[in-house]
Amino acid sequence: MSVLDGLGAALAAGAVEVVDLTTPLSPRTPVLRLPEPFANTVGLSTTPVSRYDEAGPAWAWNDLHVGEHAGTHLDAPVHWITGRGGRSVDRIEPARLVGPAAVVDVTAQAAADADFLLEPEHLEAWEDEHGRLPRNCWVLLRTGWAARGDDPERFLNADEHGLHAPGPSVAAAEWLAAHPHVSGFGVETVGIDAGIAGGFDPPFPAHHHLLGADKYGLTSLRGLDRLPVLGAQLVVAPLPVVGGTGSPARVLALVERTAQEPGA
């Protein structure tokens, strides 16, 4: 049996589960809001073309109006000035979009402090416990923030000082960008940077360092609590928008069930 035949059989038998990590995209899905004088992107809106009526008696379809960086989406290098000469979303090699998931769980810290910062020592402790990050991996930061996803105000968590949400420090962003095995960094929050990262040096260091190093971002993930620390395979499927700085994406994880799990 070939490797792919074995995977197909495992999927059919339920030994491998497909876990959807994507936030459903609707007009209520929260999107990042920048302060003036900066311009903002749009969320999703739809315009009906036909719906089993005189405009199309046997079919329904809609026109979509949506920002590249709405909902669960991928950040391509050209999204940031440090990656302006790099890849647009259509030029990302497909092999970079499929790879091992490495889950770093900081839910307790984020529950205690909405401005919690991931530091290199957290990542080094992870490697000390679980081994070197696997090649071509996606580091996924589990913070518990996905539980806020159906409440836009709690999810964005903004006040007069700006957004408050966990994310990497400048040093952690540099660490991830320099790690040769990391393809991308994913979060449950609205952006790959901490809410207060606009005041860092450089501002928004995850964007600055990761996208400048030809690495990619994923935002607004859900279901990270259903993944093992290691062992899942991530499939990231953005639209190949020509010249795009990013794209809404469907993000799936292939997770092997253990014999003790119900239905295994």
From TrEMBL:
Gene3D superfamilies: Putative cyclase. GO terms for biological process: L-tryptophan catabolic process to kynurenine. GO terms for molecular function: arylformamidase activity. It comes from the Bacteria. InterPro entries: KFase/CYL, KFase_sf. SUPFAM superfamilies: Putative cyclase (SSF102198). PANTHER family: CYCLASE-LIKE PROTEIN 2. This is Cyclase. The lineage of its organism: Bacteria, Bacillati, Actinomycetota, Actinomycetes, Micrococcales.
